[in-house]
Amino acid sequence: MTESFFNEIKKIVNNDVFHIDGHLAAGKFPGEGGAGADCSSQVSLQSLGGMRPDLAALASQFVRALAAEAARMANEGGAASKPVASTAGIPSPHQLSSGDLEAMVMEDWAGRVAGSTYLEEHLRIPRSTLHRWYRGNEVVALRKGRQRHVFPLAQFVDGRPASGIREVLSHIPHPRLAWFWLIQPSPRLGGRIPIELLKQDIVAGVIAAAKEHSAAS
Questions:
Q1: Helix (H, G, I), strand (E, B), or coil: what is residue 114?
Q2: Which helix (H) or strand (E) holds 109?
Q3: Residues facing residue 143 across a β-bridge
Q4: CA 203 – CA 25 distance, rounded (Å)
Q5: In the chain, at which residue ranges do the beta strands (DSSP E only) sit?
Q6: DSSP H or E stretch at residue 12
Q7: Interval 113-132 mean pLDDT
Q8: Would you say residue 12 has pLDDT above 60?
Q9: pLDDT tens digit string along 132-145?
Q10: Whether the model pTM is above 0.70
Q11: Which string of DSSP letters, residue by residue, matches 28-47?
Q12: In this predicted structure, what is the pLDDT of residue 59?
């Protein structure tokens, strides 16, 4: 837009909606102290009548676009201010018992889990193989309901459980406590997450940390 256009806009706007340098005045839009003020009400479109027809049309379009942009910015600001899900309120592994985890909604702390049907269809893990892993403690299986087990998806790499899970379960036998420990940053591992290290084949340090955690619990 040209400087003459901005000058014309400045003449018709009496409430400092637009400055000569092209910046929006603070506090004139919803969500920025205007308490829901309608931007379009800041400008009287009737005052455009004395301008050249082409410039008046452009100015009218500009003002409407300005109001639409202000509304969009306000909506985005509102969405950004909504709280996001956080595990900040969940106690540390040392403070939780298996009963505490059983009382919580599994997906709130365990992440994505799936049953054998999903694993067979999407990860191509045969049920017989999954059962063998489960019997050998090579995979974390969480009981959901009376008889059904589900499996946290974060433990799999290329359709196989990460190395070292069996050794972790030997030190932290309860599956829920073991999985909760595996997905939390560990002070013994420099704040790193054990399951992520296992998926990178960094096994020895994780097993040692699990042993220390078990001894301290």
A1: strand
A2: helix 106-109
A3: 149
A4: 58
A5: 113-114, 142-144, 148-152, 156-157, 160-161
A6: helix 3-12
A7: 96
A8: no
A9: 999 999 999 999 87
A10: no
A11: -STTTTSTT--GGGGS-GGG
A12: 57
Decide if 5 contacts 59 (C-beta within 8 A): yes
Owner of token pair 């999954």: 130
**Nearest-10 crossing angle of helices 53-80, 3-12:** 80
Mean pLDDT of the chain: 72
- The amino acid at residue 188 is R
CA-closest candidate to residue 129, choices 157, 160, 108, 98: 160
Q: How far apart are CA 172 and CA 190, in angstroms?
A: 20
Say if residue 69's pLDDT is above 70: no
- Look up residue 125 and give its two tokens: 């893990």
Q: Are 210 and 167 in contact (CB under 8 A)?
A: yes
| pLDDT tens for each residue of 24-40 | 334 443 444 444 444 44
Say if residue 92 is exposed, middle or buried (CB neighbours under 10 Å; 0-12, 13-18, 19+): exposed
